Amino acid sequence: MNEKPAKPLPSAYGLTLDDWIEWALAHDQTKFRAKQIVEWLYIKRVASFDEMTNLSQPLRELLKAEFVISRLPVVRTTGSQDTTQKFLFRLHDGRLVETVKIPANVHFDGGQSDRVTLCVSSQVGCAYACQFCASGLAGFTRNLEAGEIVGQVIGAEIASGDAVRNIVFMGMGEPLANLTQLTKALEILNAHWGLNIGARQMTVSTSGLAPQIEKLALIPMQIRLAISLHGATDEVRDQIMPVNKKYPIKRLFEALEVWRHNKKQKVTFEYILIEGVNDGLDQAGVLAKRARTMNAKVNLIPYNTVEGLDWSRPDEERQEAFLSVLKSAGVTCTLRREKGHDIDAACGQLRLQEETAEGIIASVAE
Q1: Which of 71, 235, 290, 325 could be 284's S-S partner, Cβ–Cβ 3.0 to 4.6 Å?
Q2: Active site residues
Q3: pTM of the complete model
């Protein structure tokens, strides 16, 4: 009789300070021990519990028996001519997840950042089937745990040698479909005892899960929100974003009013320009009205070619005409000069290639 494989130990990166305090007290330790543990994990960045030399040997053995310091192994690293890098990390169950580093001094969304920005994934695959995206081509496998989300940031810093000070949750998956683990990861990333990344330097992107937007709005952290809009009307958005049939634009904007009431930051509308689908100047006019209603910024992103999908990007003249309509209406907007187009940078492409090659693409979560 075959026994089920042992459940992997939880990642030490998935616990908040309060979690560690609770664990310490349950094991007859002091709160101070919990603070020492998080200092070793996030400030000193040790690779093993044995390195936590101010903890007793029995305590270190107990930690080793209950947790792992899960530094995600890098399967592949790709880099483009502009030094944008993509890391393909392997998770404890053999699945793969992508993380993209956009370095300092590279123009990003029309501006120039002096800090490294990391595009982080929240799920293995995606269940929302946006028609232009590679993340959902292999289906949805599972949510990432908080420790795996935090582990991407630590793994990218180790692999690249650069400190990450800006994070965008725009990688694989729908972040708000994994809200519980996402919010825990946000706390760890933001906390002074954790990675100490400013809340305003973290942006969560969503395809438009209205109830979850309202829940996220209540979290006492001034994070930023980006909406993957990609269509200014229900007619157009329905063609490319199935989520719109459940939460149409009217419902989405009701949720955004809740967000605006609770947060100080501008909402950003992400808008991928797809030739013949959503790049009409009539769409630009409606988008301008919607953006002005919310005082939102618009990021225009020329479509990034995905193998297996038939979409294509508009020519530069069409892109500029769309941008001009928005600017003429007084909307704050940018047109991304594509970074990473030569490294399969669209979400999910590298993972899709590797999992297909390894023959594990059809193995989905039960």
Answers
A1: 325
A2: 98, 347
A3: 0.88
